[in-house]
Amino acid sequence: MKKLILLGLITLLTLSQAKMVDAIAIIVEGEPITTAEIRAVQRQMQVSKEQATDLLIQDRLQKSAMKDVKIAETDVDTKIAGIAAQNNLTIPKMQMILKEQGTTWNNYRSSVKEAMKKEKFFQENVVSSIPAPSEDELKLFYRNHQDEFTIPASVNLIEYSAPSEESMKKFLQTKNPKGVKSRSVTKSTKDLNPALLGSILQTQDGSFTRPFNAGDRYISYKVLSKKGKVNMSFEAAQGAVTAKWRQQQQSKALKDYFEKIKTNADIQILR
Questions:
Q1: pLDDT tens digits, 161-189
Q2: What is the pTM of this model?
Q3: Which end of the chain is more exposed for a tag (fewer CB within 10 A), N or C?
C-alpha cells in the first residue's frame, strides 16, 4: 500500500512540473516522461536519477493498468461522508476547511476517487494473490523482526472522567473541565487491558484517547509521555505481526506485478 501512496505522490510532483518546458526522456504506453519530471522526483524524494526514472515508469504503468478501473460517484459520496464522520465534520464544514486550504471541492472529490481506484486495483491485482499466513510463518517473522515489536514500559497520563458519554464528548470538543474530574497517573503497560493499551499507543503525546465506558462513568486519557521499552510476546503482538507480514508481502507482490507488466510494456527510451 505504501508503494501506491508513493506513486500518488510522484503524480503530484510531476504535475507541479507541467509548466516547465523540457525534453521528453521516455515514453511509457504512449505517456511521456520529461527530464524535468525526473529531476523533480530526484530532488523532492532524494533519490538517484535511476531510482527516479524507475518510479516514474511505475507511475505511468499504474495509470495504464488502472484505465479500466471504475468507481461509481455514489461510492465516492459514501467514502467522503465516512471521512467527514471520522473527523467529526459535516460536509459543509469540510468544504469550508478545504476552501481555506486552497483546495476546490471538485479537486478533492477527484483525489478521493483516484485513491479509491488505486485501492480497488491494489485489492484485485495484489492482495487477492497473497495466501493467508500460517502461524508458523508468523512466528518465524516475529523472531526475525522482534525488535520491531516493542512497546513503552510505562505511560504518563492525565485521566479525565465524566458522568456521561455526552458530557465527556463535550469536554473533548471544548476542553472546558466543568463537571469533569481529572488526576495524573502513571501506568505500567503490562497492567493495561489490550483495548486501552492499543488506544494509548495510537495516541500522540499531548492528545486524548477516545472515551471509554467505565461502568458508572466515561474516561478519556491525555497522553503526556511514554517511557522505556519492552518486547511484546508473540501472543500480544500477533495482530501487529500479521499486519507487518502482510505489508511486506504486499510490497513484494506489487513490485513483482509491475516488473511483470514492465516486461511486456511499450517503453521507449529517448535520452
A1: 999 999 998 898 888 988 899 999 999 99
A2: 0.60
A3: C
